[in-house]
Write a structure and sequence with these properties.
CATH architecture of one domain: 2-Layer Sandwich
Largest sheet: 4 strands, antiparallel
Oligomer: single chain
Strand order of the largest sheet: 2-3-1-4
Shape: elongated
Number of strands: 4
Radius of gyration: 26 Å
Low-confidence stretches: none
CATH superfamily of one domain: Ribosomal protein S6/Translation elongation factor EF1B
Order of helices and strands: EHEEHEH
Number of helices: 3
Strand content: 35-45%
Structural class: alpha+beta
Mean pLDDT: 88
Length: 135
Protein backbone atom coordinates (compact mmCIF):
# COMPACT_ATOMS: atom_id res chain seq x y z
CA UNK A 1 0.00 0.00 0.00
CA UNK A 2 1.27 3.45 -0.95
CA UNK A 3 0.54 6.80 0.67
CA UNK A 4 -1.23 9.38 -1.48
CA UNK A 5 -2.49 12.93 -1.19
CA UNK A 6 -5.25 14.22 -3.45
CA UNK A 7 -6.19 17.89 -3.70
CA UNK A 8 -9.49 18.68 -5.38
CA UNK A 9 -11.25 21.91 -6.33
CA UNK A 10 -15.01 21.69 -6.82
CA UNK A 11 -17.18 24.44 -8.33
CA UNK A 12 -18.36 26.71 -5.55
CA UNK A 13 -21.78 27.19 -7.14
CA UNK A 14 -22.44 23.43 -7.02
CA UNK A 15 -23.90 23.73 -3.53
CA UNK A 16 -22.71 22.39 -0.21
CA UNK A 17 -24.89 19.28 -0.41
CA UNK A 18 -23.37 18.22 -3.74
CA UNK A 19 -19.85 18.88 -2.48
CA UNK A 20 -20.42 16.83 0.67
CA UNK A 21 -22.00 14.04 -1.39
CA UNK A 22 -19.00 14.00 -3.74
CA UNK A 23 -16.56 13.81 -0.82
CA UNK A 24 -18.60 10.91 0.62
CA UNK A 25 -18.56 9.16 -2.75
CA UNK A 26 -14.77 9.54 -3.07
CA UNK A 27 -14.09 8.30 0.47
CA UNK A 28 -16.58 5.46 0.00
CA UNK A 29 -14.83 4.39 -3.18
CA UNK A 30 -11.52 4.50 -1.35
CA UNK A 31 -12.72 2.34 1.53
CA UNK A 32 -14.55 -0.14 -0.71
CA UNK A 33 -11.32 -0.63 -2.67
CA UNK A 34 -9.43 -1.57 0.47
CA UNK A 35 -7.82 1.83 1.11
CA UNK A 36 -7.63 3.68 4.39
CA UNK A 37 -8.38 7.40 4.76
CA UNK A 38 -5.83 8.93 7.14
CA UNK A 39 -6.83 12.60 6.89
CA UNK A 40 -9.59 14.63 5.29
CA UNK A 41 -9.05 18.37 5.35
CA UNK A 42 -11.80 20.59 3.97
CA UNK A 43 -10.43 24.04 3.24
CA UNK A 44 -13.81 25.34 2.14
CA UNK A 45 -14.63 28.04 -0.37
CA UNK A 46 -11.58 30.00 -1.55
CA UNK A 47 -10.66 32.40 -4.30
CA UNK A 48 -8.82 30.79 -7.20
CA UNK A 49 -5.40 32.07 -8.28
CA UNK A 50 -6.76 32.44 -11.82
CA UNK A 51 -10.19 31.90 -13.38
CA UNK A 52 -11.02 28.31 -14.34
CA UNK A 53 -14.02 27.85 -16.64
CA UNK A 54 -14.93 31.50 -15.89
CA UNK A 55 -15.15 30.72 -12.15
CA UNK A 56 -13.25 32.77 -9.58
CA UNK A 57 -14.01 30.63 -6.50
CA UNK A 58 -13.84 26.95 -5.70
CA UNK A 59 -14.36 24.56 -2.80
CA UNK A 60 -11.06 22.94 -1.82
CA UNK A 61 -10.51 19.66 0.01
CA UNK A 62 -7.49 17.46 0.59
CA UNK A 63 -7.50 13.70 1.20
CA UNK A 64 -4.53 11.79 2.58
CA UNK A 65 -4.86 8.04 2.31
CA UNK A 66 -3.14 4.70 1.95
CA UNK A 67 -4.19 2.44 -0.88
CA UNK A 68 -3.13 0.32 -3.78
CA UNK A 69 -2.35 2.20 -7.02
CA UNK A 70 -5.56 0.92 -8.64
CA UNK A 71 -7.71 2.55 -5.94
CA UNK A 72 -5.94 5.86 -6.44
CA UNK A 73 -6.61 5.63 -10.18
CA UNK A 74 -10.30 4.95 -9.45
CA UNK A 75 -10.56 8.09 -7.30
CA UNK A 76 -8.97 10.13 -10.09
CA UNK A 77 -11.45 8.59 -12.55
CA UNK A 78 -14.36 9.68 -10.35
CA UNK A 79 -12.99 13.22 -10.25
CA UNK A 80 -12.42 13.29 -13.99
CA UNK A 81 -16.00 12.20 -14.72
CA UNK A 82 -17.64 14.64 -12.31
CA UNK A 83 -18.61 17.86 -14.11
CA UNK A 84 -18.42 19.90 -10.88
CA UNK A 85 -14.70 19.21 -10.36
CA UNK A 86 -12.56 22.06 -11.70
CA UNK A 87 -9.12 20.63 -10.91
CA UNK A 88 -7.57 17.73 -9.02
CA UNK A 89 -4.10 16.38 -8.44
CA UNK A 90 -2.87 13.23 -6.77
CA UNK A 91 0.70 12.79 -5.56
CA UNK A 92 2.36 9.80 -3.98
CA UNK A 93 4.00 10.59 -0.66
CA UNK A 94 7.45 9.07 -0.35
CA UNK A 95 8.72 8.21 3.13
CA UNK A 96 11.61 10.34 4.37
CA UNK A 97 13.14 7.52 6.39
CA UNK A 98 16.71 6.66 5.43
CA UNK A 99 17.03 3.29 3.73
CA UNK A 100 17.91 0.38 5.96
CA UNK A 101 21.49 -0.75 5.47
CA UNK A 102 22.76 -4.25 5.94
CA UNK A 103 25.46 -4.98 8.53
CA UNK A 104 28.06 -5.26 5.78
CA UNK A 105 27.06 -1.90 4.26
CA UNK A 106 27.21 -0.20 7.68
CA UNK A 107 30.72 -1.56 8.27
CA UNK A 108 31.85 -0.38 4.84
CA UNK A 109 30.43 3.13 5.46
CA UNK A 110 32.15 3.31 8.89
CA UNK A 111 35.52 2.31 7.32
CA UNK A 112 35.13 4.92 4.57
CA UNK A 113 34.33 7.61 7.15
CA UNK A 114 37.34 6.64 9.29
CA UNK A 115 39.62 6.73 6.21
CA UNK A 116 38.33 10.18 5.26
CA UNK A 117 38.93 11.47 8.81
CA UNK A 118 42.47 10.05 8.79
CA UNK A 119 43.24 11.63 5.41
CA UNK A 120 41.97 15.00 6.63
CA UNK A 121 44.19 14.80 9.75
CA UNK A 122 47.30 14.02 7.68
CA UNK A 123 46.57 16.77 5.12
CA UNK A 124 46.44 19.61 7.70
CA UNK A 125 49.83 19.87 9.48
CA UNK A 126 49.82 21.43 12.96
CA UNK A 127 52.09 24.39 13.82
CA UNK A 128 53.84 25.02 17.12
CA UNK A 129 51.04 27.36 18.26
CA UNK A 130 48.47 24.55 17.96
CA UNK A 131 46.75 25.74 14.75
CA UNK A 132 47.17 24.47 11.24
CA UNK A 133 49.83 25.86 8.90
CA UNK A 134 47.30 27.44 6.52
CA UNK A 135 45.57 29.71 8.81
Amino acid sequence: MNKYETVCIVRSDAGDELVKAFIQKATGSLESGGGKLTKLDEWGRRRLAYPIEKKNEGYYFVMEYQSAPEVSKEIERLMKLNENVLRYQTVRIISKKPPKLSKKAKEKAAKALAAAEAAKAVAAPVTAEGGNANG
